[in-house]
């Protein structure tokens, strides 16, 4: 049975082990808010909300390859948004989505970023684009 939960900060090493085992990019830091999807107590998907200069950036969305195409990423992100927004209803959530996932994030309520990005987020995006990553800035209001 699929369960989705916010991990306590002391459990951050578990999600980093999951990312490493699946060769996923990025590592969770203790200041990140980390959600995981579990199947029979095994982590099969994860994502993080990373605080950046007073803003929140959705990063590290990853579903283990054998569990893809089952709607897990959708359920995970919807849960993250609902739980986070219940505590911080006015807070905007940003993400840098891969271009091929634009429609996926749009269907979840994210919008292409027509607003100016906060300086630190703009700097990060510029750096990522300089690494030839095909990303688009999006936000959830």
UniProtKB/TrEMBL annotation:
What PROSITE patterns does the entry give? Answer: GNAT
User: Is Iron tagged as a keyword?
Assistant: no
Recite the UniProt keywords alphabetically.
Answer: Acyltransferase, Transferase
List, for all copies, the residue spans of the domain called N-acetyltransferase.
1-130
Keyword Acyltransferase set for record? yes
InterPro entries of this UniProt entry? Answer: Acyl_CoA_acyltransferase, GNAT_dom
For molecular function, the Gene Ontology terms on record are: acyltransferase activity, transferring groups other than amino-acyl groups
What's the protein called, per UniProt? GNAT family N-acetyltransferase
Species this chain originates from: Pseudoalteromonas maricaloris
- State the organism's lineage: Bacteria, Pseudomonadati, Pseudomonadota, Gammaproteobacteria, Alteromonadales
